[in-house]
Structure formats: C-alpha cells, structure tokens
Amino acid sequence: MSSLFPALTGGPADRPALRFGDRALTYGQLGAAASAVAGRVRDARRVAVWATPELETAVAVTAGLLAGAAVVPLNPKSGEKELGHILSDSAPEAVLAAPGAALPGPVRDVPRIDTGIDVAGRGPLGERGGDEDPGLIVYTSGTTGPPKGAVIPRRAVAATLDALADAWQWTGEDVLVHGLPLFHVHGLVLGVLGPLRRGGSVRHLGRFTTEGVARELNSGATMLFGVPTMYHRIAEALPEQPELVTALSGARLLVSGSAALPVHDHERITAATGRRVIERYGMTETLMNTSVRADGEARPGTVGLPLPGVELRLVEEDGTPVTAYDGETVGEIQVRGPNLFTEYLNRPDATAAAFTADGWFRTGDMAVREPDGYVRIVGRKATDLIKSGGYKIGAGEIENALLEHPGVREAAVTGEPDSDLGERIVAWVVPADPQSPPGPEELAGHVARRLAPHKRPRVVHHLQALPRNDMGKIMKRALGHG
Ligand code: MCA
Ligand code: AMP
C-alpha cells in the first residue's frame, strides 16, 4: 500500500500546510491534529464530513483518509431531502464536524465526532487503506433522480494528483489559493489533497472574492484554481483593481476547470495581465482527464492533452472511434485509466451503463481533436444536465422538487446561457391554480431548502401547458421559443 500523504510523515514538520483565514497548520500540526481524529474513526468503514469551508474540514478529510475510511463530503448548504438521500445511501458510521457546527435533522441521526484541532499529540499513527480501497464517495447529479455516489479509490486520487504534478510542474514549493467548496472534487481533491500530496500549502479564502485572490497572490501564493464563474468575475474586476492585475501577472499558474472557460473572459484576462489561463478537463467519476501543460500552449477554448496514464478516445454514436485529428469531427469522449472511479454506490445498473464492454467510461461530453491532439469540448450529450457556476445539476431532480410544491401542477427545467454562471436554471411551471401562481422567490426557496441553494431556479416562467409531443414527452427545445 502506498501513502497518499508522504509529506505528513516524511517532510519537515515546520512547513506550512493549510491556512484558512487567520488559522493555519504546519505539516507537524496537521499530522498531530488529523491523527487525533483518525484514532477516533479507526474502525469506521465510512465517515461523512460536514464540509464547511474551514480548517476543520481539511483536518477531518485527512483524518478519514489516514484511518483508511471512505470519506463522504456533505454540502453544508444541502437541504434535508438531499442530505437524507446521501446519508441513507452511504450509511456512514459517523459524521465529522467542526465543534459548534449546527447540524440539520437527517445529519443529527448519525453519531457525531467533533473535529477539534488538537496539535499536542504525537503525529501520524500510520496510514491505513489499500490502493483499491475507496477513499472518497462524492455525490454527483445525473439527468434524473437523486445524486449518485461516485466511489473514488485511493489510487485514483494519487494517480490524478501525480499526473497533474507532471503537467503543471506542481511541487512542494507551490502555494495554492482558492475559494472553492470542499464537497466536490475540484476544491477538495485538487484544492486540498493536491497541495498536501506535494508537500506544499493551500490558503483557502473561505469564500471566493477577487480581493482575496489579489491579497494572497500578492503575498506569496503561486497558483490559483477556480471555476469559470470565478474567472469571469476576475475579468470583470481587473479594470478597477490594479492590485488584481499585479497578482495575476505574477502568479506561476492560473488554472480553470469544472466548466468551459468562455473565450471572451480568457482573452480579457490575457489582455489585462499578459497571462493565459490553463484549462483542465475532469469529472467527479474520472478525476482529471486532460490539461494544457504548464509549458504548453494555452489556446482559449481547448482543454489540452490527455494526462499521463489517461487513455482518451472520441467515439461516434454507433461506437466507432473517431480517428481524425481535424478539429471538426465530433465524438463522445471516453476515457480509461487509473484516475477512474470504481462504481456508483448501490447502483450496479448505473455503473454498468456508464462503461463500455471493454472498460471505457462514457463521459457524455462531446469534443473534437485538433491536429496537435488538443481536445476541444463542444457540448454535452444530455440536455438535461446543467452546469451552473461549475456545479452539475440534473434537470430531473429540480423538476421532482418543484412538483412537490402544492402550487405546481407541471414543471420542466432547462439551462439558459448566462455570462456569469455559464448556464442559469430556468423553471417552466404550470401552476395548480392559475389565479395565484407560486412566485419565483417562493419556488427558489422551496428548491433551495429541499436540495441546495445552487440548484434553485433563477428564472421562473408560468405557462398554461407544457409543450408535449404525440407521446406526451415534454419538448424542452420548444420552451423559450414562443
Ligand atoms: C441565495 N442563497 C440562498 C437562496 N438564494 N439560500 C437559500 N435559499 C435561497 N433562495 C444564498 C446562497 O446559499 C449563498 O449563500 C448566497 O446566497 C449566494 O448564492 P449564489 O448566488 O448561488 O452564489 P454565487 O456567489 O453566485 O456563487 C458563485 C460561485 C459558486 C462562488 C462561483 O457557484 C461556486 O462556488 N461554484 C463552484 C462549484 C464547484 O466547485 N464545482 C466543482 C464540481 P452564502 O452567501 O452563504 O454563500 S465539478 C468537479 O469537481 C469536476 C471534477 C471538475 O472538473 O472540477
Ligand atoms: P461534475 O460531474 O460536477 O464532476 O462535472 C463534470 C463535467 O464538467 C464534465 O463532464 C464536463 O461536462 C464539465 N467540465 C469539467 N471541466 C471542464 C472544462 N475545462 N471545459 C468544459 N467542461 C468541463
């Protein structure tokens, strides 16, 4: 078994590891604090982590992984329906939470362990868990139904982080800054476990602001990770924030992912700072698949080359591989490699459907290969998957939540282009009583309370009927066009 965190045991104890606001831990302190918590979850198979953007979350996840348990990160803004599903599906033996954090109904039913930061102990007890054992279970939305738990083995975490280290020349000298949530792959695996695996450090902003980015990059941080919405807000702020221009100009690496970075935002950032943004392409199920290399050409609109160890192909509808590197022939991206998840928890049907007979994972993303091998993503197979602010959201789960509102008779959900969020969620609702239709705030609050605030509709249209075909299926393409 190989260690996920060699720097916790092997490196200098006084090196900085984590900083959240004005609270920080060195590797020695993190080793002690995480080992103290790990000692309390030694026998657990799975532990949930109440993943607030705080130091305690990073300690709890490190502790769970040291103990060899599978860590299930929970979005602390999730509503009770979503939390109830995740907890009954993953059945964690304990939930790790910062002392004092108020936990809602479904989470209170799980035995709680407070992750106080105790740096007085002796440090790493040793690391448990085999390479193929599950390290994380991350819930991700599909087109219909509740989110599925992607079971991510420890070897996938190690493989993806080491491939990124190669592509980005990422070392223990790097200091990463970001304000990403800690319950998804981007912020947690890349943004916390990444620096820890390299023996470098991360400064988390608590919440993303352009001021925070400027402050950290101007005081020693070398890399920035963000979703396109964050780079859009940076592009908007650059003309008014000279310190942000200095910050980005001096950074070693600016990386964007989770959704397509609009060419216009990329170009505005380059024009103001002289810097290009490195795009990488990943997925909860696959961790990272491709990236522009640190010493490569960051062409706007492209996500670079397959990472070391990752096999990538494009296939046509009938399964025939696309062999042309012509920048034109579109196929679905399929991947294979040590970066892949093993299964959707308790969903053998969905797992089987996600892979081809010879083990390729069907991403559902459509792309072309350019003559030099760069991948350019051009769309997605499923129109019922929406990417908003870098979050993947299934139209079906929002429709189901809307239908549980007494004022809603029928509902359809679509994604519309949005310059800030990439796509915004739009709800098309047939009210139960046309005389008093539920208002947009009411429906947004309803969805936010049941699922999560980022899944709430930003626009609500009322209709007398939904457009349906002869089979009774809703014709979503007809919505918004009259
Ligand atoms: C608003 N709020 C509400 C309501 N309306 N709360 C309850 N009910 C309501 N009706 C609250 C929100 O909770 C939030 O609270 C605040 O108002 C602002 O919400 P919102 O407008 O949605 O947030 P934003 O500021 O516009 O968020 C933009 C963002 C965010 C910061 C870019 O979308 C974000 O963090 N995105 C990152 C997504 C991500 O990490 N994806 C990775 C998955 P408060 O003020 O308390 O916050 S993809 C992945 O992992 C793969 C592997 C990959 O490739 O990376
Ligand atoms: P998630 O399921 O939340 O992990 O989101 C994964 C999806 O995000 C992928 O299937 C892509 O559709 C999208 N994605 C991630 N990175 C990029 C990128 N750099 N460019 C375009 N789409 C991306």
From TrEMBL:
CDD domains: MCS (cd05941)
Gene3D superfamilies noted in UniProt: 3.30.300.30, N-terminal domain of ligase-like
Span of domain AMP-dependent synthetase/ligase: 12-345
Location of the AMP-binding enzyme C-terminal domain: 397-473
Signal peptide: none
PANTHER family given in the database record: ACYL-COA SYNTHETASE, ACYL-COA SYNTHETASE FAMILY MEMBER 3
NCBIfam families documented for this protein: PRK07787.1
Annotated family: Belongs to the ATP-dependent AMP-binding enzyme family.
Protein name from the UniProt record: Acyl-CoA synthetase
